[in-house]
UniProtKB/TrEMBL annotation:
It comes from the Bacteria. Residues 370-395 are annotated as: Disordered. One of its GO terms (cellular component) is ATP-binding cassette (ABC) transporter complex, substrate-binding subunit-containing. This is Multiple sugar transport system ATP-binding protein. InterPro entries: AAA+_ATPase (IPR003593), ABC_transporter-like_ATP-bd (IPR003439), ABC_transporter-like_CS (IPR017871), ABC_transpr_MalK/UgpC-like (IPR047641), Mo/tungstate-bd_C_term_dom (IPR008995), NA-bd_OB-fold (IPR012340), P-loop_NTPase (IPR027417), Transp-assoc_OB_typ2 (IPR013611).
């Protein structure tokens, strides 16, 4: 049996009334694998604990299979949780750890058949008589997963179960988790700050920032159509190139986006997305380019929709199967708070025309104020010196992915071609306006 989980305007606050989760609404379908993704401290583990009943819900409602579940004790929710630190009883063998919840639920029933079946599923039959101190990290996590699986719960709740493991073992267990949850068909909510895990595991990914849900969708959607600059920067390896640009749209000339010393000339006739950029005439915007949206080639080799830039090689990362080249194009990078800089002071929210009641719009504005701006293009009022222990920033403003057969050295000037079909443009507040805007731009902004 699996179940549906719904959160309606759920909030949670701790000391001094600071909300760690702010009016979160999320529907999880039966059998779905949903990943809660975000940086440390964004509230994702708190959401998981509220679903499990380990944290009280201050505001909002939790529904389990359509029934109100706020007041249900953890034992009445029929869920199994896998913790980051394994949480195994050190005085019990693996067999006893897996069978312990079964003995609690049904004291008169022999748990051995279900324990053995679970051990065969996970391939840990030879570990059943060992104690946790005799197991490696990966073996402990398999036992912890076995304890959850043996209960045959209606939902799995996993709180960063792989974060304490080395990279190779993490990749192996990631594949095992994906296969097991799909074979069992059980609703799974998985918390992680690793976007690689989120993209490879989840049917859908919910991105949180400062306790506020930023976007929820399939891995392909959140990568190819991020709702704002925070999601764009958090999803993808290497991180998306974010550059400060200025839209120039003269009535008698071609539309361009100035990047400082160079510019992107938008091809004519303008597509609908580029036509809508005319509203941003004379305004600063954030230009987003994935590393695969730029290639090394001469202007004569340009395909339809590609425009030329030049870049100075500043750093080359050899990855074996590919090379990441850091170029200096004379552009100014845009800063995403919480990812590249300390969180700025909350500013005045932008005026937007939105659907919904006045109360809903006020709630959205209050949430935006608390979480802070998604991006900042303004200079800080007072520059704070970087700590002496901070690592130097990798040079360059544009990272390009290319093949390992290309030979480049520091200081080379290289021709680049930008595919405008993969161009992202975000407004000053970090919301995506190109491509495929969800709303028409407001002339009063």
């Amino acid at each position: 049996m699996t179940r549906a989980i719904s959160l309606h305007d759920v909030s949670k606050a701790y000391t001094q009334g600071v909300r760690v989760v702010d009016r979160l609404s999320l529907d999880i379908a039966p059998g779905e694998f949903l990943v809660l993704l975000g940086p440390s401290g964004c509230g994702k583990s708190t959401v998981l604990r509220m679903i499990a009943g380990l944290e009280d819900i201050d505001e909002g409602q939790l529904f389990l299979d359509g029934e109100y579940g706020n007041d249900l004790p953890p034992s009445g929710r029929d869920m199994a949780m896998v913790f980051q630190n394994f949480a195994l009883y050190p005085s019990m063998t693996s067999r006893d750890n897996i069978g312990f919840p079964l003995r609690i639920e049904a004291p008169g029933t022999d748990p051995a058949p279900r324990v053995d079946a679970t051990a065969r599923m996970l391939g840990i039959e030879d570990l059943l008589d060992r104690f946790p101190a005799q197991l490696s990290g990966g073996e402990r996590q398999r036992v912890a997963m076995g304890r959850a699986i043996a209960r045959h719960p209606s939902a799995f709740l996993m709180d960063e179960p792989l974060s304490n493991l080395d990279a190779k073992l993490r990749n192996h267990l990631r594949a095992e988790i994906s296969q097991l949850t799909r074979e069992l068909g059980v609703t799974t909510v998985y918390v992680t700050h690793d976007q690689s895990e989120a993209m490879s595991l989840g049917d859908r990914v919910a991105v949180l920032r400062g306790g506020v849900l930023q976007q929820v969708g399939t891995p392909r959607t959140v990568y190819s159509l991020p709702s704002n600059v925070f999601v764009a920067a958090f999803i993808g390896t290497p991180r998306i190139n974010l550059l400060r640009g200025l839209v120039r749209a003269p009535l008698d000339g071609a539309m361009t986006i100035s990047l400082g010393k160079q510019f992107l000339r938008l091809p004519e006739p303008l597509c609908l997305d580029h036509q809508l950029l005319r509203v941003q005439q004379g305004r600063e915007v954030i230009v987003g380019l994935r590393s695969e949206a730029v290639r090394i080639a001469k202007p004569a080799a340009a395909r339809p929709g590609e425009v030329a830039l030049t870049g100075l090689v500043e750093h080359v990362e050899f990855q074996g199967h590919e090379v990441l080249v850091h170029f200096n194009t004379g552009s100014r990078p845009a800063v995403v708070p919480e990812l590249e800089a300390p969180r700025p002071r909350p500013g005045r929210p932008a005026r937007r025309r939105r659907e919904g009641t006045v109360l809903e719009r006020l709630r959205e504005r209050a949430g935006a104020l608390r979480a802070g701006p998604v991006a900042t293009l303004d200079r800080p009022e007072r520059a704070e010196p970087a700590p002496a222990s901070a690592e130097p920033r990798v040079p360059g403003d544009l990272i390009v992915r290319t093949t390992p057969d290309i030979r480049l050295r520091h200081g080379m000037q290289v021709p680049l071609l930008v595919d405008l079909a993969h161009l992202f443009v975000f407004d000053q507040h970090g919301e995506r306006i190109c491509p495929n805007p969800e709303r028409l731009p407001d002339l009063e902004e």
